[in-house]
Amino acid sequence: MNQAKLFYDKVSGPKDIHIFNEEEGADAHCQVANSSLMLAVIFDWLEKIFIEY
Question: Which residues of the chain register pLDDT less than 70?
Answer without folding.
Answer: 1, 53
